[in-house]
Amino acid sequence: MAPSSDAAADGEPSGDVMTYHLKAEHELRIEVDFDRQVTVKLLSGDAEIFGCELPKGGAKTLSGVKCAIFTWHAAQIQIVGKPDACYEAEASAAMRSYLNLHTALEERRKAAVTTTSPTTKGPRVLVVGNTDAGKSTVCKILCSYACRADAMHGGVAAAAGHDHWVPVFVDLDVGQNSVTPPGTICAVPVDAPVDPVDGWPGEAPLVYYFGHASPGENAAHYKALVESMARVLAQRETDDVLARAAGLVVNTMGWTDGLGYDLLLHAISALSIDIVAVIDHDKLTAQLKAHVGSQGGDVQVVKLPKSGGVVTRDTNFRKRARDRMIRSYFYGSRSELNPCASAIDASSFKVFRVGGGARAPNTALPLGATSRMDPLRVAPLPMTRDLERCVLGVLHGDNAALGDADVLSKPCAGIVCVTEVDASRGKVHILQPSPGSLPSKLLLSGTMRWND
After folding, report:
1. Is 39 among the annotated ligand-binding positions?
2. Is 110 annotated as a binding residue?
3. Helices marked H in 299-421 — which ranges?
């Protein structure tokens, strides 16, 4: 139905006000650039954004997003402001497909929580597809629906203090990580539907610092981090029955051929994935089914349709999104935080980098020779001006005798940005999220840079 124009009520933001009357299984697709703000409000009916229900009468302010407000029945939506694009579209096919997958996952969770076998696990879903296929959207919907579902089966959830599932969301996309700053992979328990403004819950995430926007910079290091994360998650499931039943939802990058395909297969193996959801990619679906069949495992490959509301993000938008994610880490999504600029003694900290550049192929070497460049070699870096504007990962642990394997397996406590290196005074000026001493003296460098 066409929108109607309203006059702004007292207390509402100034600007255009439009009211949309959505039909059942339709969605309102909205695009808002980073330099604009739009407020949405549910006036009547029911509606959700990526699985998170909108409270009736409550307002959400959107900026720098491309999202869709969906309703299963009908809804009246008010838009205050001037979005870059705003239109209604039918979305039943994609959303019904996502709901059917959620229903299948629920059955696995129920079976896992009621069994006495410690080896029976809940669903472990890996969402794959090309760039801008809507992978993050599907992950948000699956996690939000899981949180909204009742987990009171056999009293296990009640005994654990939960009345709903708490799945773990894993983001392996180092270029466009949706939870932690770019250059990282992370895992975080999702105990509430993913808020369209605040995003994923950021409390106590398990983070590993890779330091690059593409895994192609050092695939061996990337694989080592995924394996380290998998070991920690496996231990968590051993200690927590409800966590084992709730399972994992894993987001991946949009690189699906060549080395990217190899990294997908590695993630399936390392994280013990049993369901691979492929979004709108016939060739990849066929490849993965053939691979699973040759391995003789129990991995199920399902194809999902791509939502018609998925928007292509150009290189500039992605770069701005990465910069905004780093800025949000230091200043908050609403600039509500006050980061701290401090100077540290260069001699008190150790900066490392994993790998020493590209390893030459054996075919390019003399007959019988092999490359000695180890992509997992941990090399110390001097405190020079080359580090200025570098984003460094602060690793857990402070033992000066840590070996290469320890540095490769240590989670990340946070990040800092080097603003200036004063070699004459032996000082390094950094921007850190809060005042006080850093939690560790082990810093990991990559190619990530940022200008405040």
Report:
1. no
2. no
3. 315-331, 404-409
Domain count, the chain: 3
Confirm whether residue 27 is marked as ligand binding: yes
Q: Is 151 annotated as a binding residue?
A: no
Express as a percent the part of the chain with pLDDT over 90.
Answer: 62
Token readout for 406 is 């320890």
Q: What is the pLDDT of residues 118-129, one digit of tens each?
A: 778 899 999 999
Burial 353-362 (b: 16+ CB within 10 A, else e): bbbeeeeeee
133 annotated ligand-binding residue: yes
- Is 66 part of any known ligand binding site? yes
The pTM (predicted TM-score) of the whole model is 0.89
Residue 161 labeled ligand binder: no
Within a domain: 324: no
**Cα angle: 341, vertex 347, 349; to 5 degrees:** 65
Give the Cβ contact number of residue 451 at 10 Å. Answer: 9
Say yes or no: 295 and 421 in one domain. Answer: no
For residue 299, pLDDT beyond 90: yes
38-57 pLDDT per residue, tens: 999 999 999 999 999 999 99
Q: What was the pLDDT predicted at 316?
A: 85
**Residue that terminates a domain, selected from 282, 304, 326:** 304
Residues 115, 230: one domain?
Answer: yes
Q: Is residue 356 part of a domain?
A: yes
Looking at 90, 112, 140, the residue that finishes a domain is 90
103 is in an annotated binding site: no
111 and 250 share one domain:
yes
